[in-house]
Amino acid sequence: MKIVQFGLCYSPNLGDGVIADCLLAALRRRFPAAELIAVDLSGRDGFGAVTVRNRALVLRLLAVLPGGLRRALVRRRLGALLDGVEARWAAALTGADLAVVGGGQILSDADLNFPLKIARAAGLAARAGVPVAVHAAGVSRNWSAEGAALFGALARADLRAVALRDAPSMEAFAAQADWGIAPVLARDPGLLARACYGDAGVRTGRIGLGIAAPDLLGYHADAAVAGGADPLALFEGIAQALLAGGARVALFTNGAEEDRAALADVAARPGLAAALADGRLAVTEAAGTPAALAAQIAGFDAVVAHRLHACILGYAYGRPVVGLGWDRKVESFFASVEAPHWFEGRADATGAEIAGRVEAALAEGVDPATHARVLAECEAGIDAMLGAAGISAGA
Q1: What are phi and psi of 250, to 5 degrees?
Q2: What is the pLDDT of residue 226?
Q3: Distances 193 to 21, 30, 161, 290, 373 between C-alpha atoms, Å
Q4: Which among 104, 307, 361, 381 could disulfide-bond with 186, CB atoms 3.0 to 4.6 Å apart, if both were Cys?
């Protein structure tokens, strides 16, 4: 048995790597002797590999260019990158029984980025005669005509299953794709973090406050960004309110360079200096791997974050989580685990209001029955994907 997973296993945003790790670990539990290969859709071959330097600057430049010029620049640059990794991807697919594409918000057309990458992977799978399944993917409602045609390469391959991770993705897919296959819902594999990484976290007694770069949030946002035009001020306000309530707080990121720079900005603000000096506020060293990020988050008593996989990891380890708005996928996740009141999507929400949500979530705790059901549904979704592909556990 040989299965190739196309995802973002070496992304600097370690949440993407959490998805890849957890999905591969779940497959390993089902097929202990199988050959399982993770392929990074951005062409990375390890953590720390850089495919776009000065990404925040690049995104700002792209944002002011006309759409046609943006897409032409991305097409040229990505074409060269994909030409360089094509032989490696083709070798990975040789003799494979299944190629799994997902998860993450990969069915999104930001200037043809993912359409070009996925079309190349799908074309190689078709050429190799390898069946394809899309699993736990997110879909953005932003496909251009060219992007839709590129994504259609999946339908032109031997596509066996399409599983999407939330209701907004199902709606966006129905509005943009006609692949001749009915998608189903499947939970994000990151929910299986404890089964993948174990109970690695050392409890710190702190509330983890996830810092995300405003530029990255704004570029990909499809909803109001909590914090409005100045999310960094909101992070400062949340920390101050939590500290004023007697909590100990830790600032952390999901790993992207831009997020680490934003964290440094927040930590340097004069309003937090006293708490940093006396230890009530800590700056967590940036994790270098998905496993390290999972261990950090597992060590918190609660989590507050924009980043979806900071929220998912917190929930996976049974920690109360407050999600901050910027993308419908975050709000949808909280609705799916029966905790919509743990989500704050208003652009004008204050630090004090969000700190109040954290205190309420800590008092309520994660419902164990709902938590167990959610994890069981995640496992069942993987089994359903394999069944649709004609593969049975133990094969």
Answers
A1: -125, 130
A2: 80
A3: 8, 16, 24, 10, 15
A4: 381
- What is the identity of the amino acid at 204? T
**What is the number of other CB atoms lying within 10 angstroms of the CB of residue 132?**
25
DSSP H or E stretch at residue 132: strand 132-139
pTM above threshold 0.70: yes
Q: CB of 139 within 8 A of CB of 172?
A: yes
- Residue 225: per-residue pLDDT: 78
At 327, the pLDDT band (50, 70, 90 cuts) reads confident
For residue 62, the model assigns a pLDDT of 58
DSSP letter at 26 equals H
> Which pLDDT score, from 0 to 100, does residue 11 have?
93
What's residue 111's pLDDT? 86
CA angle (325 as vertex; 18, 47 as ends), nearest 5: 25
| Token pair listed for 328 | 């419908």
Q: Is the dihedral of CA 252, 255, 259, 263 positive or negative?
A: positive
CATH topology of domain 198-364: Rossmann fold (3.40.50)
User: Does residue 376 have a pLDDT over 90?
Assistant: yes
DSSP codes, 100-125:
EE--EEEE--STTHHHHHHHHHHHHH
- For residue 6, count other CB atoms closer than 10 A to its CB: 28
Contacts of 20 (CB under 8 A, 6+ apart): 5, 7, 8, 9, 38, 290
Placement of tokens 């190349």 in the chain: 120
How sure is the predictor about 53, in pLDDT bands with cuts at 50, 70 and 90? low
DSSP secondary structure, 272-304, as one string = GHHHHHHTSEEEPPPPSSHHHHHHHHHTSSEEE
Residue 221 has pLDDT above 70, yes or no: no
**Torsion of Cα atoms, 57 then 63 then 68 then 71, to 10°:** 50
224: left (phi over 0), alpha (psi -120 to 50) or beta: beta
Three-state secondary-structure class, residue 387: helix
CATH number 3.40.50 given to 2-194+374-388? yes
**Tens digits of residue pLDDT in 258-280:** 999 999 999 999 999 999 999 99
User: In this structure, what token pair is assigned to residue 265?
Assistant: 């900005």
From the list 309, 313, 290, the residue with the least C-alpha distance to 46 is 290
Between strands 249-252 and 281-283, the pairing is parallel
Query: Which amino acid appears at position 112 of this protein?
Result: L
Read off the amino acid at residue 234.
L
